[in-house]
Amino acid sequence: MTVVLxxxxxxxxxxxxxxxxxxxxxxxxxxxxxxAIVAAHRAFFRAGARIATTASYQASLGGFAELGLDSGExxxxxxxxxxxxxxARVTGDELVAASIGPYGATLADGSEYRGRYxxxxxxxxxxxxxxxxxxxxxxxxxxxxxxVPDVDEAEAMLLAIEGLGVPAWLSYTIExxxxxxxxxxxxxxxxxxxxxxxxxxxxNCCDPRDVAVAARIAREASGKPVIAYxxxxxxxxxxxxxxxxxxxxxPEAVRDWLAAGVEYVGGCCRVRPDDIAALAAVVTPGGGxxxx
Length: 292
Known about the structure:
The chain is of the alpha/beta class. The protein contains twelve helices and twelve strands. It has helices at 9-15, 28-32, 34-46, 61-66, 71-87, 103-107, 121-137, 151-161, 185-190, 211-222, 254-259, 273-283, and strands spanning 3-4, 51-53, 95-100, 142-148, 168-172, 174-175, 178-179, 198-204, 226-229, 235-237, 242-244, 262-265. Helix 7 (121-137) packs across helix 8. The protein starts with a strand and ends in a 9-residue tail after the last helix. GO terms for molecular function: methyltransferase activity.
């Protein structure tokens, strides 16, 4: 059964009037306005999403430290991201995926759309592990290793979550038939083959037109269920800090994604609750649950 995911949390928060121009993006509201995060999550649940992704994508211990928060407060805010998504549940059986965004997201300069930061796999693992441990201990149903731009960081994320006892998905941001760093998708998706902790592999924050081909490669290369939650099709201009181009997110296109093997489907940046409601109406009533 196909599972419906949520859409762009930050997009929804901005649409509700919140200023997310700082480097912490939506994670800033964990400290400033947690009720706003609950409301945004709930809007997606009411639209038919069965899984919410937490507001921890751009959160990091270093980023919180720059706001003047000590390590204890930073840990508490990461834990809070999971609690708020759980609080937002409508039926009580929706699931929470703790977002582990890429290293580049914490730089707030668009690096997550390029990859190749000049760091080793070991260095990237050391960066991701503390946050992954905190989020896993907060009790989410899943970990979302998402918007991964290259294979090195994917390998690091898999090492960082190893042994934490929480199932996870691995999702790349891609362009055409390669990762943002230019690696073949077959190579990228193959890193999850045989990893029992990974319950789905796929793509997010990419052009919707790239989903179907990537989904077929993901299933063949990884042997895993496929997840896809593209953005609207617009392009993020990191320097101007705005989206440009034309929106192309169409719930009707989901039929092609399902035919290509996608089992978990939603949206990313610029995809709002109304879009998820339309998508859910196309996909299936009721949704389902990911394998544990």
